[in-house]
Amino acid sequence: MRLSIHDISGREIAVLVDDEQPSGSHGARWNGQDANGHRVASGVYFYILQAGDQRRTRKMVLLK
């Protein structure tokens, strides 16, 4: 399973999860930082969840 955060232009900002997960419910929290530990600006971001051959993209808003 891979859970990544992308900015409005599609660039990958951060990867929250990138390994195998057992079946069941899981949670992840994004701290509003990019992969280098820098805080990102408020705005619209997308998270992409990939598991096996399935891929889901959803929009979210980061407010500071």
Detailed description of the structure:
It is built from no helices and four strands. It is an all-beta fold and about 60 residues long. The protein has one domain. It has a four-stranded antiparallel sheet with strand order 2-1-3-4, with no helix packed on it. A hairpin with a 2-residue loop joins strand 3 (about 45-50) and strand 4. It is globular, with a radius of gyration of 12 Å. It starts with a strand and ends with a strand.
Quick synopsis:
With 64 residues, this protein is mostly beta strands.
Give short descriptive properties of this protein:
mainly beta; four-stranded antiparallel sheet
Number of H- or I-type helical stretches = 0
Strand arrangement, largest sheet?
Answer: 2-1-3-4
Low-confidence stretches: none
Shape: globular
Structural class call reads mainly beta
| Quaternary assembly | single chain
Let me know the average pLDDT.
96
Q: How much helical structure, as a percent, in the residues?
A: under 10%
Number of domains: 1
Beginning-to-end CA distance, first to last residue: 28 Å
**Beta-strand content:** over 45%
**What Rg do the Cα atoms give?**
12 Å
Helix-strand topology string: EEEE
The total beta strand count reads 4
Give a quick account of the main beta sheet: strands, pairing sense, barrel closure. 4 strands, antiparallel
Spell out the blueprint of helices and strands.
Blueprint: E1 2-6, E2 12-18, E3 43-51, E4 54-62
Antiparallel strand pairs: 1-2, 1-3, 3-4
